[in-house]
Amino acid sequence: QIGADVISYNAAISACNAGGMWQQAVDLLMSLDECMIQADRISYNAAISACEKNQEWLLALRLLLQAGER
């Protein structure tokens, strides 16, 4: 069995971003910690972009600050 990794999560987050599914993109980003997978710059960028496209400015800013802490 092959487990998920940051690359597969990034692909899923990016797909949600492209599909206008910002909430799912953020949910996937948050679930990385639960799966003991380290989110990377690409993970945060895709989720922040999804928030920005849907004018979720405060959430985008919160994610940006969270990314800077890592």
Automatic annotation (TrEMBL):
InterPro entries linked: PPR_rpt, TPR-like_helical_dom_sf
Signal peptide location: none
Pfam family, one: PPR
Name the record gives this protein: EMB2076 protein
Native organism: Symbiodinium pilosum
Gene assigned in the entry: EMB2076
